[in-house]
Amino acid sequence: MSEIDLSTLINAALQQRQSMLPRWHAEGSDCYRLFHGASEGLAGVTVDRYGPQLIIQSFHHGLGRDQLDQMLTIINSWMQSQGIAPLVGFYMDRSSKGCQAVALDPQQATTNNEALCHELGVSYRSRGIHRGIDPLLFLDLRVGRRFIQAQAQGLSVLNLFAYTCGVGISAAKAGASKVVNIDFSKSSLAVGRENAELNGLNADQVGFIQSDFFPAIQQLAGLPVKFRRGRGAPAPKHYPRLTAEQFDLVFLDPPRWAKSPFGTVDLIRDYPSVFKPSLLATKPGGRIVCANNVAQVDRDDWIDQLKRSASKAGRPVRSVELLQPEIDFPSFDGNHPLKLAVLEV
């Protein structure tokens, strides 16, 4: 791509977001997507602001240093025109295995790697470089956190596949009566705990459980814990023991695919395997927010599958509300890879 084309694309994307800046900043948000290449002219490239940091990612092919410097220069010039200090740039080339984030200015890597960002008045930890490859907050899920924040006051909330617990922290900050975050990753939950501290939340307001999804949700749903018995392999013993419990609001955001001794997560072939026990951990009259981030899954077919699965479980869906990613995640055809459905059950 030529320098002129890249400049045109980035400037066009920034212009599209010009009118949104006052709203984002007024509601206490300084993290948002500045360039969504899939529908803004450069597929596989994303540029996100996280407070004082700018994180560029490429998924299909690497970007040259000249391109990265040009993008950073254009965006920082625009930021300064909006009265915002220049951002510190980081780049993650995810087009090949063994990818690792790098600081565009190595001298700033140490002093500016740790940062705070804010969304809807909630504070989150951001790190330009860390052990994982994903940013510590998924910005396309803002619409889900916005929904939870608006609904959570006085309710019990279960956050499944919690990652760094953005949904749970939003719920607790909004006055939920109880919040439980469940994730297998110890390091992700550590960031979640850090996020809780950043927002002045204590253990009475928000809890964290490190566990494989299946034994945790099966126990909460009052189901027996199942496991895959390998050749001579004993039943897994090391998982937290939980009592059956139902929640007013359940947020289910599984990865595309994952396998453990307890079961397999497969959003294309078997979403019901994660949906059914999560549904059973939802109170009658409560709501479960389901996410599916696989682009090739048709939204309407997926919703029909959820309805059929709920009926078979004896918990028919009473209503469905669809949540669309916000304006900084444009789609040329309206079919966003991320699908969010709020089911009243």
| Computed CA radius of gyration, to the nearest angstrom | 21 Å
Gap between N and C termini, in Å? 50 Å
Record field, number of beta strands? 16
The succession of helices and strands, N to C, reads: HHEHEEHEEEEHEHEHEHEEEHEHEE
Average pLDDT score: 95
- In percent terms, what proportion of residues is strand? 25-35%
What topology, given as strand order, has the largest sheet? 10-9-8-11-14-16-15
Structural class: alpha/beta
Low-pLDDT windows of residues: none
Number of helices: 10
Percent of residues in helices comes to 25-40%
Largest sheet: 7 strands, mixed
The backbone outline, from C-alpha atoms, is: globular
How would the blueprint of this fold be written?
Elements: H1 3-17, H2 21-26, E1 31-36, H3 37-40, E2 45-50, E3 53-58, H4 65-81, E4 88-93, E5 102-103, E6 114-119, E7 122-127, H5 142-151, E8 156-160, H6 166-173, E9 178-183, H7 186-198, E10 207-210, H8 213-220, E11 247-252, E12 257-260, E13 263-266, H9 272-280, E14 282-292, H10 299-312, E15 319-323, E16 339-344
Parallel strand pairs: 3-4, 8-9, 8-11, 9-10, 11-14
Antiparallel strand pairs: 1-2, 2-3, 4-5, 6-7, 12-13, 14-16, 15-16
Helix pairs in contact: 1-4, 5-6, 8-9, 9-10
